[in-house]
DNA sequence: TCAAATTCCTAGGAAGTCCAACTATATTTC
DNA sequence: GAAATATAGTTGGACTTCCTAGGAATTTGA
């Protein structure tokens, strides 16, 4: 954990933007930069909690998604769509989860193009452990107040809808 | 741009969390996941704008920081602290900017440990072009309303302070 | 004054992102 | 029914992140 800076670097950047005549967009710039930095902090906390379980956030999300699937299995293309990552990111995550014994790949019974990812017993167990750890260490002490969380859900939900994430 | 999903996957995940008895942390989980996804969308937009200039966001931030420095130069350790990235990330970015002719590395006049990064004329020119493009294509059409931006700055500023980013 | 501790930066590596291109399979169109 | 088009997933690669470890230089403390 590095030493706190004496001043907020993003507030400083916002002032620099204003000073250079870009006042109109200084506040959105600061908001966007703050989102970048907040994501970085949260990801770091999440990875720290998952590391002892041999997981990363990308791998954990895959396991969690499979855990909620009724059959414990999904086509890789479906996982890509729901996790909103590129198919090659799914290939990467599944390669490592398969190597760790947490998932298996099986061919689709009727569609030769499609590979199903299926949770194994040890995958299900580690996903449950990871969820418990994240619930208590990260989500349960998020650093946001109740009304902050509501605001974030509202603001970022509308943003994601406008960005075409969902109908 | 993939096809919009029929429903918000993060709202679905929140309902799954509630259904599994983790209702207390479902909303913070959704807010955090929304931050992750929003960052991904914004980063993708930024990279798309910067790509024609031969820049990435990491490289651009370095150039912008140098642009605001009074002398157009900074020690690498200072850049690491202000950009809030690991020193090895600064090494990586500076390697590429140096190869592109946008910065130069010079030894510190009095401290043998320290390397100064200095903006070149072409680095300054590309940074100005990039800032103009980001201002009009990303920050000027951020996808957030004015009051959203204020809320984000407030909420994420407090979060970053509590996380120890600044005093 | 010198040893210990700290700072600065790099190298090698792991991880995950997406891009471009490819192969295999399925669907659509004529 | 065959060609064209679309879908699914992979491969190789570029990029950026941080981790660990190490070397060089500076600062600190006894």
Automatic annotation (TrEMBL), chains A, B:
Keywords: DNA-binding, Transcription, Transcription regulation. It holds the Pfam family MarR_2. The keyword Transcription applies. Residues 28-161 form the HTH marR-type domain. InterPro entries: HTH_MarR-typ, MarR/SlyA-like, Tscrpt_reg_MarR-type_CS, WH-like_DNA-bd_sf, WH_DNA-bd_sf. It comes from the Bacteria. Gene3D superfamilies: Winged helix-like DNA-binding domain superfamily/Winged helix DNA-binding domain. This is MarR family transcriptional regulator. It comes from Sinomonas cellulolyticus.
């Amino acid at each position: 954990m590095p030493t706190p800076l004496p001043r907020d670097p993003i507030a400083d950047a916002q002032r620099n933007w204003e000073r250079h005549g870009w006042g109109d967009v200084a506040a959105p710039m600061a908001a966007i930069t703050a989102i970048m930095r907040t994501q970085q902090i949260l990801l770091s906390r999440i990875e720290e909690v998952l590391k002892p379980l041999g997981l990363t956030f990308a791998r954990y999300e895959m396991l969690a998604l499979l855990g909620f699937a009724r059959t414990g299995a999904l086509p890789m293309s479906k996982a890509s769509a729901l996790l909103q990552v590129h198919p090659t990111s799914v290939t990467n995550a599944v390669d490592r989860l398969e190597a760790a014994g947490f998932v298996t790949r099986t061919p689709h019974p009727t569609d030769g193009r499609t590979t199903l990812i299926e949770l194994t017993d040890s995958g299900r167990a580690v996903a449950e452990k990871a969820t418990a750890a994240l619930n208590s260490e990260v989500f349960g002490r998020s650093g946001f107040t109740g009304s902050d969380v509501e605001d974030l859900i509202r603001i970022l939900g509308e943003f994601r809808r406008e960005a075409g994430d969902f109908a």
